[in-house]
């Protein structure tokens, strides 16, 4: 069975310098970005989606980004708020992916940079995409960026070479085309 691994960086957070980082909410622009990424990724979650699992950082901005997806899908999804996702590196994300007891057909991880960007770049370096070269867009993995990857193997212990990038959303390019 082909599995989808979807990585989303939270939308833009407000610059509330007086509050703890975990409590930073989305900015007004971030709220719009969260709705936009939810609209963009929804077709990947509705089509042929047998089992949907979310792993979300406990930071408020990631929870709010997830809520935009739940609203767009019209239902709450199976969601784990994982403290380890808050300040992990790309190896930590791989551990979360590979430690899933029942590997879902669609796994959505909403977290932070630099870990998400590094993981996506590691996959991009080792695989070829049917959709073209995403190299330039992968440089920043800006807020509300999203990468949809599919497995090439049925195995459970995934590595970068086991995934292919199916689609990539870079918000700066999208905002420029709308401007």
From TrEMBL:
It comes from the Bacteria. Gene3D superfamilies: Phosphoglycerate mutase-like. Pfam families: His_Phos_1. Signal peptide: none annotated. Coiled coil: none annotated. InterPro entries: His_Pase_superF_clade-1, His_PPase_superfam. This is Histidine phosphatase family protein. It comes from Candidatus Kirkpatrickella diaphorinae.
